[in-house]
Write a structure and sequence with these properties.
single chain, 766 residues, Amino acid/polyamine transporter I, Rossmann fold, 2 domains, 4-stranded parallel sheet, 23 helices, elongated, AA-permease/SLC12A_dom, SLC12_C, membrane
Length: 766
């Protein structure tokens, strides 16, 4: 009885949305972050709303409740899954928010329109093989997505948000762009599929004969469908989820009628539609132009099953191209790429960390069961001639023909909505994170009061319109397949890197993920990507690498999430440092390991350059001693000045490390640096001191030229609060030096500022 009650309560929570903001105290607990809630006495806090950084001094006794009202608080369920608390944007549960969008996106094209095409060319055996390949890739990718979804609180942006927070903005932004274009092109394919269904059902040769059939007529029909999708999405996600749930019920009912029709329909002749111009032109010598061509529906027959068992690749009458295994796989895979439709709605889900794994896995298993069952029914009842020349034969054998038309229109239109909503949410997340700087600022401002990104929806609508110019659905299919396979490869590779690097921020509560599944998914995705189209795959990979390199050179003032590259570097460096055994040193491989003691880099710039040239690939450490005592409660001056020294190294383009210490005297500090500098087998064997004389030190730093990267830097102004009180530095107005490629510190005056924080620490050497 207790088990039955638990199941009943779970179903009630899943199916019915509640407006109650609070949860049972026995099932949830609240966690807050000390830094976010200002539990520290003094710290510097980055303000996402203004893009500036300032110092704040508060304590537990004087917390301002109005300031803390916007700080997100993470709720954690009893099983350890983190989620954001209820707000006005988060209204979707598992069934309407994840299960239904995924099922409808995967049903949209394949269920009623393309299964006959696949069986006719690949046969039953190769169709099942292709289903197996698709299932392995999708299921392994889904396990990776579930691990990301349960790795902490999730906001809008779907998989992009999960990956960017785990891997950093470079990889996350690149993969986010890939997902965005995959959803855009997939949406265009859904629109083209709906147009094809309407023309085949109501176009030339049909009973209604109300639609014209040409390239530009089809583009017009697609534009009308796209506009209807745009209007629906502009009305908000709640209407979309409601429509999705009822559409799913309708599609399931239509499919049930199709299954019943397989059993009750007697053998008959099925008409080959006039839109199959290829067949009618080929048969012109046998038939008159006014004659109609028919094929056989045999009902369940062993002979029909044997006829459809093996592959027989022929010409696709919608494109005129001869099919092969790779092309058919591309069409099949592109028809079932809606795996991430639920994850794209993460910003509207009440419990994304629970809804995404549960809804996605059940939807995937449900869809594959339905499609494999339909494949066997088709192969056992319909002749290969009909399967090859009439992709919409299901409506001819149905108990009531309009049933299938209604199902096709409902499923494909729902996929159009899902693709438009998902792509716009990804674009909105990219704009909010400023991945491409000010390029998409107008999208950030184009959001309604309830969080609906109307500007991103309109921009996505325009790109979908351009996709419709490609032509028929089967021409778009290989491009969709390439983009989604690369996206799935990136997801699996990301999780593989996080797991192998033992990243401390990657601790998913989803227990069924491992690096083995991520490796299988990544290898399978990239292999099938090149099998479908090596040319398209090479171009797409090149574009992806280009985005990664471009974003790697950018500064991300709002995206301080860390980078997986640093975790991987740390993992490899630690491993090889342990292998570097000092006991195995030999004189033949001796090299200088320099420790240069520097008091003030302004007068030691030339010496630093000289030692950098002399080290010959060895270790180079800049040592600096601060005199004083570490008293309780005093600030650590070494930690405060360390970033300035690192910035000096970056701008001088030298390969060196910095080591600083605090000691009562210079002598004690130098001894500490000589004995403690380095790590493992990397320790200095040569100590260098500047020559002491009575000459007045010259400021070599002021006249040194530094390269200034213009477009890569943020326009955020410097915050004077971050400067130590004992350093009064010049200020330079943003944009004054924008046209210069090199700058010198001597070119600044008291009324100038610098655009970007990289040069700023150089002023902190007195």
């Amino acid at each position: 009885m207790n088990g039955f009650n638990r199941v009943r309560s779970t179903l009630r929570r899943t199916l019915f949305s509640s407006n109650d903001n609070s949860s049972s105290p026995n099932t949830t607990r609240r966690e807050d972050f000390p830094i976010l809630n200002r539990h520290l006495s003094s710290y510097e806090r980055f303000d996402l709303s203004t893009g500036s950084q300032g110092a704040s001094s508060t304590s537990l006794n004087n917390i301002n409740p109005t300031i803390n009202s916007h700080i997100p608080i993470i709720e954690t369920s009893s099983d350890g899954v983190e989620f954001l608390p209820h707000n006005s944007k988060r209204t979707l549960r598992t069934i309407p928010g994840v299960f239904c969008p995924i099922a409808l996106s995967m049903f949209s094209i394949s269920l009623f329109m393309r299964m006959g095409f696949v069986v006719a060319n690949a046969g039953v055996l190769q169709t099942l093989l292709q289903f197996g390949l698709c299932f392995i890739i999708l299921f392994c990718t889904l396990l990776s997505v579930c691990s990301l979804a349960t790795n902490g609180a999730i906001e809008g942006g779907g998989v992009y948000h999960m990956i960017s927070r785990a891997l950093g903005p470079e990889f996350g932004g690149s993969i986010g762009v890939l997902f965005f274009f995959a959803n855009v092109i997939g949406n265009g394919q859904s629109v083209a599929a709906l147009v094809e269904a309407l023309v085949a059902s109501f176009g030339p040769g049909s009973k209604a004969n109300v639609f014209e059939d040409s390239h530009w007529w089809r583009f017009l029909y697609g534009t009308i469908i796209n506009i209807i999708s745009l209007i629906t999405c502009l009305l908000g996600s709640s209407l979309f989820s409601m429509a999705t749930f009822f559409t799913f019920i309708l599609v399931c009912f239509v499919y049930l009628m199709v299954v019943v029709s397989f059993f009750v329909k007697s053998p008959t002749q099925l008409l080959i539609p006039k839109v199959n111009t290829y067949l009618y032109e080929q048969q012109a010598l046998l038939y008159n132009k006014t004659d109609l061509i028919y094929g056989n529906y045999t009902g369940f027959s062993a002979a029909t099953m044997r006829e459809n068992t093996y592959a027989n690749y022929t010409v696709d009458y919608t494109t005129g191209d001869t099919m092969d295994f790779a092309t058919v796989f591309g069409v099949l895979f592109s028809s079932i790429t809606g795996l991430l439709a639920g994850a794209n709605m993460s910003g509207e889900l009440k419990r994304p960390s629970r809804s995404i794994p549960t809804g996605s896995i059940t939807a995937l298993l449900f869809v594959f069961f339905i499609l494999i069952t339909e494949t066997l029914f088709m192969a056992a009842t319909t002749s290969r001639f009909v399967l090859t020349n009439n992709y919409l034969f299901l409506q001819d054998i149905n108990i009531w023909e309009p049933f299938v038309v209604i199902g096709i229109i409902s499923a494909t239109f729902s996929a159009c909505l899902s693709g438009l909503v998902g792509a716009s949410r990804i674009l909105e997340a990219l704009a909010v994170d400023e991945i491409f700087g000010p390029l998409f600022h107008w999208i950030r401002g184009g959001t309604t009061r309830h969080g609906n990104p109307w500007a991103a929806v309109i921009f996505t609508f325009i790109l979908v319109q351009l996709t419709l110019l490609i032509g028929s659905m089967n021409k778009i299919a290989p491009i969709v397949t390439i983009f989604f396979l690369l996206a799935y490869f990136a997801v699996n590779l990301s999780c593989l890197a996080l797991d192998l690097a033992s990243a401390p921020n990657f601790r998913p509560t989803f227990k069924y993920f491992s690096w083995h599944t991520a490796l299988i998914g990544a290898v399978g995705s990239i292999i099938m990507c090149f099998i479908v189209s090596a040319a398209f795959a090479s171009i797409a990979i090149g574009v992806l690498i280009g985005f990664i390199c471009m974003l790697h050179l950018r500064d991300f003032p709002r995206a301080s999430w860390g980078s997986i590259s640093q975790a991987l570097i740390f993992h490899q460096v630690r491993k090889y440092l342990l292998l570097l055994d000092p006991r195995k040193e030999h004189v033949k491989f001796w090299r200088p390991q320099m420790l240069l003691l520097v008091s003030n880099p302004r007068s030691a710039i030339n010496l630093i350059d000289f030692v950098n040239d002399m080290k010959k690939g060895g270790l180079f450490i800049l040592g600096h001693v601060k005199t004083g005592h570490m008293d309780n409660g005093s600030n650590d001056t070494c930690s405060q000045e360390y970033p300035y020294w690192v910035s000096l190294i970056d701008n001088m383009k030298i390969k060196a490390f910095v080591d600083m210490t605090l000691a009562p005297s210079i002598r004690d500090g130098v001894l500490q640096l000589m004995r403690l500098s380095g790590l493992g087998g990397l320790r200095p064997n040569t100590v260098i001191l500047g020559f002491y004389d009575n000459a007045v030190p010259e400021d070599k730093l002021r006249h040194r030229s530094f390269f200034k990267k213009r477009w890569l830097k943020t326009n955020a102004p410097l915050n004077a609060m971050a400067t130590p009180a004992f350093h009064q530095q010049p200020i330079i107005q943003p944009g004054i030096m924008e046209g210069a490629s090199t700058i010198t510190l001597n070119s600044f005056n008291s009324s100038a500022t610098i655009n970007g924080n990289d040069m700023y620490p150089l002023f902190n050497f007195g």
